[in-house]
Amino acid sequence: MNTLLDFLSYSLRNDKKILVVLQDDSGAFQKKTIKILGMEDGIIRYQSGKKEKEIPLSAILSAGYARGDHGEIETMVK
Q1: Is pLDDT at 65 greater than 80 in this prediction?
Q2: Other CB atoms within 10 Å distance of the CB of residue 53
Q3: Closest CA to 51 of 75, 34, 71
């Protein structure tokens, strides 16, 4: 897993936070830890803190695992 869409999908499928670098409307760069809530037609809906927001996919410049996450997916075995 190493593409931007792979990380966005990882967050959405596994309810995990990811670290992204994005560019806001003013052109400033921001580094945020977010959880992806939905992706449709080039629009990404995400949660950062307690706020839900939407941004265009093109605003996300890079993505990676959030601090403490190495891509493992916990499975429950009974």
Answers
A1: yes
A2: 13
A3: 34
